[in-house]
Amino acid sequence: MKVAIIGTGYVGLVAGTCFAESGQDVTCIDVDEEKLQALRLGQIPIYEPGLAELVRRNLDAGRLHFTGELPAAVGPAQVVFIAVGTPEGETGRADLRYVLEAAEQVGRALTHYTVIVNKSTVPVGTADRVHAAIARNTRCAFDVVSNPEFLKEGAALRDFLKPDRVVIGTRSERARELMGELYAPFVGGENPLLYMDPCSAELTKYAANAMLATRISFMNDVAALCERVGADVEWVRQGLGADKRIGSAFLRPGIGYGGSCFPKDVKALMATAREVGMEFDLLRAVENTNTRQKRCLLTKAVKHFGDLSRRTFAIWGLAFKPRTDDMREAPAVELIEGLLGKGARVQCHDPVALESARRYFGDRVTYAPTCYAAAEGADGLFLVTEWNAFRHPDLKRLKATMRSPTLFDGRNAWDPQRAREEGFTYFGIGRTR
Ligand code: UDX
């Protein structure tokens, strides 16, 4: 099957590469010529484990192509994916400019019946707008399908190649058949292909992300309560997660959710509700808790040290989560800005996000080549991103290098008792052990 993918961002690049891996002939389209040149050499613009190798393998096999020529790629394709960005627009609603522009161009490029698939995260009703934008520009028959993407950064290939489910929103039998054929290698058994109408498919994506964000904020509120009543949230979490109806995923308290999806999608779902006269109060609370949570380590540090000026702090981890260099909405940004604002010095380390961090902090912080170098002379060490490399620190070495041995464990990744035995003052999230 000939497949065209518009947009070589996270979703477009991963989807294109995985479809090529399953044997399809895929052409990825982008407007950024510099990015395209790098991609043709197998150099990818993001950090995602395994992706560069898979891109190279499929380039070499001649199944994956990169081009700036949209009409030439869309014309012969049977399926065209729109996977361009939907940034946060005014009042929290997703900005559909790029999606609708792509749809107009697709319309002009069609040469025969084609299925146009919306992979970008878009508000309810967008499939109709995309349909209208294409219809204005073509006489060919076509169908628009809503097929939201649920992959996680850092595990993108596994999520795409073995998804929990694939959601296909369409009323057209012809489009159903084509989509079923395309996704057949990835689904089956416990991983179903779910067909529904486009509106339900669009809503499913937002509801999934908002539900996960809700679980996280719920646990962060439970953690705050634990600190006040003397319970330990790690025990409570295990007790909750063992209930099969609840399950253990996405129950980890921390310093708030970040990334390019949760904050944006929670806002977008609230905006959608508001447009139809409904206040999604629960999500307002989810957001408020997350805002508080992003500040909680700074609050603990101020309570412990008082004045932070003339203090030095080490930050371990900058990306919004491990296995990515993505710093969008990362809790590290707010923490570091808070520390700098209070006159503290900041020394940070992240296995892959130091370059991304430079765009945020320039030379206002020190970038250390190793985590121990970041801790040199520090009064406190903040664990912000739970990279595996940070999970078992050499506490003796840390104690010898820090000025005052104080740990702020933003991910409950360390053992408080061991830390205290080694002479550290330990602060976690909702921990009283
Ligand atoms: C998310 C969705 O999981 C994915 O399905 C969707 O396609 C895009 O948005 P992603 O943003 O890559 O994926 O990250 P994810 O692994 O879901 O983590 C989101 C945030 O939640 C991170 O900041 C993470 O630290 C936080 N989190 C996650 C917690 O604080 N506790 C948890 O238990 C799990």
How would you describe what is shown here?
The protein has 433 residues and is an alpha/beta fold. It folds into three domains: 2-196, Rossmann fold (3-Layer(aba) Sandwich), CATH 3.40.50.720; 206-292, Orthogonal Bundle (N-(1-d-carboxylethyl)-l-norvaline Dehydrogenase, domain 2), CATH 1.10.1040; 295-427, 3-Layer(aba) Sandwich (Rossmann fold). The protein contains 18 helices and 14 strands. The chain has helices spanning 10-21, 33-40, 51-60, 70-74, 97-109, 126-135, 156-161, 173-183, 198-229, 233-241, 262-275, 281-294, 296-305, 331-341, 354-361, 371-375, 395-401, 416-421; strands at residues 2-6, 25-29, 64-67, 79-82, 114-118, 142-146, 166-169, 193-196, 312-316, 345-349, 366-367, 380-383, 406-409, 425-427. The strands form three sheets. Strands 3-2-1-4-5-6 form a six-stranded parallel β-sheet, with helices on both faces. The longest helix is centred in the middle third of the chain and has 32 residues, at 198-229. The chain is globular and about 75 Å long. The model has no long low-confidence stretch (mean pLDDT 97). The structure holds uridine-5'-diphosphate-xylopyranose. The site of uridine-5'-diphosphate-xylopyranose (UDX) has 19 residues, from helix 9. The active site is at residue 261. Residues 314-416 form the UDP-glucose/GDP-mannose dehydrogenase C-terminal domain. GO terms for molecular function: NAD binding; UDP-glucose 6-dehydrogenase activity. Pathway: Nucleotide-sugar biosynthesis; UDP-alpha-D-glucuronate biosynthesis; UDP-alpha-D-glucuronate from UDP-alpha-D-glucose: step 1/1. This is UDP-glucose 6-dehydrogenase.
